[in-house]
What does this fold into?
Amino acid sequence: MCSMHLAQNFFLGWLFTSNGTDLNPGPEPMDISTNTTTLPCDISSHDVTILEGHTSEVFTCAWSPSGLLLASGSGDSSARIWTIADGPGSSSSQNGPLNVVVLKHFRGRTNEKSKDVTTLDWNGDGTLLATGSYDGQARIWGGDGELRNTLNKHKGPIFSLKWNKKGDYLLSGSVDKTAIVWDIKTGEWKQAFEFHSGPTLDVDWRNNVSFATCSTDGLINVCKVGENRPIKTYLGHQGEVNAIKWDPTGSLLASCSDDYTAKIWSLKQDKYLHDLKEHTKEIYTIRWSPTGPGTINPNQQLLLASASFDSTIKLWDVELGRLICSLNGHRDPVYSVAFSPNGEYLASGSMDKCMHIWSVKEGKIVKTYTGNGGIFEVCWNKEGDKVAACFANNVVCVLDFRM
Ligand SMILES: *[C@@H]1O[C@H](CO)[C@@H](O)[C@H](O)[C@H]1NC(C)=O
Ligand SMILES: *[C@@H]1O[C@H](CO)[C@@H](O)[C@H](O)[C@H]1NC(C)=O
It folds into this structure.
């Protein structure tokens, strides 16, 4: 699933460097070429639905596991659940009313910047949506948009929040340095994990009871519900660890950092298995391919993709710890990557306003969509025939993808 913490660097930058007057931590102005000449592989506007309604940048989006609902989270203190028509070609924005539910994270005045929706995640059966907010609260909503519960214990913005597969626990990581496991049945917090000395930037479940957390302190902890110490602490990064992800079988953990490296870790040893060192700037996010033993695509090789401020995406052979291919095509930092469910394509979104879809096998762009703002996140639906992208200019675009 492709829920991601928001553009945390913007927020951290704002938190730690601002004097408090800059309440709009959007992307910095950039000197980029705005050549909108149509490329041969440009996606035609007939294949694009533009979802309008948010009144500030859209940081995050996630398809429900059932596939027809798309949730988006924005700096306008709301999340929205959009019902997207099934099938290709049915998606012109002029065609009929779009069904959307607005999940308000405020009462009264609408410009409460402190309630930015920074992260969101659907539970495994798509019946509940959890949102994490800049106000430190996690909220649980029904698919109908009804607020079911407000989870209140964090003392700082939530940057990452994930359901376990079973759906009985929700895990949240916050600027307050902690991670909290919430018991969904009781609606109360089950356990707080206070093992970092800096903000928790990302969290990821390994299985139903154990998970990893990473922080600006450069450390990664593997924790288990019920245990009062981390079961593993990985040392090795020389900078903030921006994201972590368990491989599809929960045996390897990948991490990426401001130290320009990505690393692969195993529970069997304290030192990293592989140090992936080809990027020339900070690495913002990573994704495992949905391929290899134990996945629905068992006969394809397991890969790791890393997306960097150096404008490239790199694909890695995780067994050998070697670079397979560098995907060069963006002109600005890449904030998001997502593999298609069959593992054959990779979508990427960048501050250069472009979403590219790459053939993984060939390492080439097969489609491009150019919007009017930087892209914070891209996300495939379960069928692999639609890709959503969320933009800094307040819109979410849904592209029909056919090859
Ligand atoms: C912009 O498009 C024109 C027309 O196709 C092309 O000649 C030019 O090289 C492009 N410039 C950039 C910076 O891509
Ligand atoms: C987590 O729980 C679900 C539902 O009980 C189960 O199907 C799944 O196999 C469990 N996952 C792991 C890794 O134990």
The first strand starts at residue 48 and ends at 51. The pocket of 2-acetamido-2-deoxy-beta-D-glucopyranose (ligand 1) is lined by residues 33, 35, 37 (CB under 6 Å). The two ends are 22 Å apart (CA to CA).
